[in-house]
Amino acid sequence: MKQTMQEIKALFHRPLGWIEPEFDARDVWEDEVLAAGEVTIPKTYRIEGLNYEAQGALPWCVAYACTTATEHKYGDNRKLSQGHLFFHAGGGRYGSYFRSNLDVLLKDGAIDYDKFPRYKTIEAGGRMQQVKPYEKDWYTELRQKAFDVPFEDVTKIGGYVRVNNTHDAMKQAILNHGALVVGVYASKSANYYAGEGYRPQGKADNHCVALVGWTETHWIIFDSLGWVRANDGYGTLPMNYDWRWVFAITDLPENWKEVRDEKRSEGFDHALNHYGNPRRFEDEKATGKKLEKEFIKFNNKSVMDAAGKFWPVLINAATYGGYNISYRKLGQWQPGDLINWVYQWRRDPAKVPFDLNKPRSQH
């Protein structure tokens, strides 16, 4: 079917392939499940020898970053298929989600690149056919071909964790785990393609890259866009860049769930025992939904991420402990006990306003 001019223009303005994930209290954080493993941080560091290929018009950036990190850590730079991963991770015409790509790498793995290469597909008899996305419906055709290629001789990851977005935590994670998978805001207006990018106020991530090192003044990224072609995929962002989503691909201990739950319950045994009250599971579920809604209203990404580490405690505190999440003053919405508690914990854990292991009435 011939495309209209409007459809062709829409293709050229397609998003870069990152769909920013929603908050998920189930995220596993590096400092919850892994030993510190601290090593001396050098002034400069860069992971070398990565496989660069421009993503072109296809919104596969998340799969590119995830396969780059996987190739370096598990595949001895064995080149993996980004497109096969993209489609099996539920990728759509405008991109894919972080966790879905990582979950496929964990459960099913990634196949070798030559079994499903970029822009090309293998026809019957082994003949290669060039696919030009601006001339035909690339999504429907390539998706079907991707599902026709089985998971055989795959490279799998051992797990993944979120990393705190402080400079030292991110540098340590690169040294300990290899390339990180991160979200960025890629726009000419924000100097991204000049290597001096920043995030304008209120702008969410729209692209995904691998974070592979640093200099004394800049982070070093490994991108799948064409602006880094001359540098074999390497680019830079200022050291003060506003990172929001940072994931490391790494092996996890078999008992990581028990380790995480124990870490999250330290000092909160009474709160997690519902403050001695009979459990009301339906009320807890309703509280969880309200917590998410109210933290979103507060509109502070780092505070909401921090809340995920205390989610069961916060649910119990609101359901059984008498703590409010928010309130209204002169008709205006205000952050309440629990939002303020997490906000202060994010700034200085030693100065939280309440001991959540006690009900609100005891303060």
Summarize this, please?
The protein has 363 residues and is an alpha+beta fold. It folds into two domains: 5-36 and 50-249, Cathepsin B, Chain A (Alpha-Beta Complex), CATH 3.90.70; 267-362, no CATH class.
Q: Overview of this structure, please?
A:
This protein is an alpha+beta fold and 363 residues long. It folds into 2 domains: 5-36 and 50-249, Cysteine proteinases (Cathepsin B, Chain A); 267-362, no CATH class. Helix content is 34%, strand content 14%. The chain contains 13 helices and 13 strands. Strands 2, 6, 7, 8, 9, 10 and 11 form a 7-stranded antiparallel beta sheet that branches. A hairpin with a 3-residue loop joins strand 8 (207-214) and strand 9. It is globular and about 65 Å long. The chain starts with a helix and ends in a 16-residue tail after the last helix.
Give the helices and strands as they follow along the chain.
Answer: HEHEHHEHEEHEHEEEEEHHHHHEEH
Q: Could you say what the CATH architecture of the largest domain is?
A: Alpha-Beta Complex
Largest sheet: 7 strands, antiparallel
Cα distance spanning the termini: 69 Å
Structural class: alpha+beta
Poorly predicted ranges (pLDDT <50, ≥5 residues)? 1-13
- How many β-strand runs? 13
According to CATH, what is the topology of the largest domain?
Answer: Cathepsin B, Chain A
**CATH hierarchy, class of the largest domain:** Alpha Beta
Q: What would you give as the CATH superfamily of the largest domain?
A: Cysteine proteinases
The percentage helix is 25-40%
Number of individual domains: 2
Alpha-carbon Rg, integer? 23 Å
Query: What does the average pLDDT come to?
Result: 89
Tertiary shape? globular
- Helix count equals 13
